[in-house]
Amino acid sequence: MCYVYILECADNTLYTGWTINLDRRIKTHNKGKASKYTRARLPVKLVYLETFNSKIAAQRREWEIKQMSRKDKLMLIKNQSKLNQKIN
Question: What is the mean predicted confidence (pLDDT) over 75-85?
Answer without folding.
Answer: 77
